[in-house]
Amino acid sequence: MTMRIVSVVGARPNLMKLAPVDRELAKRPDVEHVIVHTGQHYDAEMSDTFFEELWIPAPDYHLGVGSGSHAIQTAAVMQRLEPILVELRPDFVLVYGDVNSTVAAALVAAKLGLRVGHVEAGLRSGDWTMPEEINRVLTDRLAELLFIPSRDAAANLAAEGVAADRVHFVGNVMIDSLCWALPGALERNVPARHGLAQGGYVVVTLHRPSNVDDPATLRLLVDALQCLSRERPIVFPVHPRARMRMDAAGVSAGGGAGGDLRLIAPLGYLDMLGLVASAALVITDSGGLQEETTFLGVPCLTVRPNTERPITCAHGTNRLVPARGDAILAAAERAVARRPPVRPVIERWDGRTAQRIAGVVCDGECFDVEAADQANDIAPELADRPSGQPGRAEMFATKEVLS
Ligand code: UD1
């Protein structure tokens, strides 16, 4: 009998999580995978490009929800998704990450009595002022199967009283996409196309309300970047939300301060990956980039007081930094100087997460945290690759591991 699985996605960071799961499910003749796009992100550069580059089939349903307040956006997803799920009666609904579309879909599905799986479950920043934290906690409460990327997520869920048999330690699905796309991304010679030397530039993304909504903070951050760009060029693909705030606050690059700060349109997945892989440093407030830089061994500064991805600080290349100019400049210098000689290896960030998810959903497999072996079961073809790309180890300033 055919198993019908519905994946609901809506925002840019959902798409690299969906792609490997879709590819894995497509291998199974007895599975019908239906993709619903809520339309939370609608600009071509925030959505369509990712479908094309990640080989995700066009969505079967598009809800056209668009932007709005949190309540309006969440409610619109719920209203438009419900009749589709009622009609389809899927065996499983998969939701991804922590965006408004995630919690909205989980709530609709759970109330219809459908089985829900949450991909990237159990992450907690402990910061209830972040809309994503609310989305994470609620989605995990609503989902039956919780697919966690790292062991700390199991501890978070256990602390909330979640039964261990709902939790599957499958690894990080973002890394599946990264492994799949990296060779093609490197072939694009993205740094050269931007006139940048390998390992000689900084990539920035900032879009969180805490960094861009207050004009004073936004100005401070852009000033700090302008100053930092006197050392090495900075490429900052600007999220539409940040662009809007910059325009409203009259913040722009330049300002007579010298340096080379480039504010550019958002990049597609492959160009962004190609750029990040050869960067000296990434400065961000994104969740995904904290993980991608850790996997690539590229130093990362996260401009936030906390992270739901502490493993990227404890075992990876990520450091938290406050939104202060002096702190960012000092941390940037330290991070570049103390770049680790080889990329960190994180348990189960190995390119096989989607395979495990499909195994749980379709075959009833179990990836119990306790039973999981502690070994780094990294795919052999990835095991010895130095950070960034082959042959880059000699470029590291020191052999010292970040302290
Ligand atoms: C959403 C997620 C955030 C994630 C981010 C990645 C929530 C609560 N937040 O934030 O966790 O890190 O996506 O991109 O779900 N806009 C456009 N074009 C688009 C999409 C948005 O111009 O295609 C503009 C609109 O002005 C919109 C604003 O960006 O109001 C914010 O979009 P929204 O979807 O509400 O949240 P993001 O800030 O993108």
Comma- or semicolon-separated keywords:
403 residues; 7-stranded parallel sheet; 6-stranded parallel sheet
Summarize the structure.
The chain is an alpha/beta fold and 403 residues long. 41% of the residues lie in helices and 13% in strands. A 7-stranded parallel sheet has the order 3-2-1-4-5-6-7, with helices on both faces.
**Largest beta-sheet details:** 7 strands, parallel
Radius of gyration: 20 Å
Distance between the termini: 54 Å
Low-confidence stretches: 374-403
Percent strand: 5-15%
Tell me which ligands are bound. uridine-diphosphate-N-acetylglucosamine
Number of helices in the DSSP assignment? 16
Topology, number of strands: 13
The strands making up the biggest β-sheet line up spatially as 3-2-1-4-5-6-7
- Following the backbone from N to C, one meets helices and strands in this order, namely EHEHEHEHEHEHEHHEHHEHEHEHEHEHH
Helix content: 40-55%
Q: Given the helix and strand composition, which structural class is it?
A: alpha/beta
Shape: globular
Mean pLDDT, rounded to whole units? Answer: 92
Explain how this protein is built.
This protein has helices at residues 12-26, 48-53, 70-88, 100-111, 131-142, 151-159, 173-187, 190-193, 209-212, 215-228, 240-249, 269-277, 287-296, 311-314, 325-337, 353-363, and strands spanning 3-9, 31-37, 61-62, 92-96, 116-119, 145-148, 167-169, 202-205, 234-237, 261-264, 281-284, 300-302, 318-320. By secondary structure, the protein is α/β, with parallel strands linked by helices. Strands 3-2-1-4-5-6-7 form a seven-stranded parallel β-sheet, with helices on both faces. α3 (70-88) packs across α4 (100-111) and α10 (215-228) runs parallel beside α15 (325-337). Bound molecules: uridine-diphosphate-N-acetylglucosamine. Uridine-diphosphate-N-acetylglucosamine binds next to α1, α5 and α11.
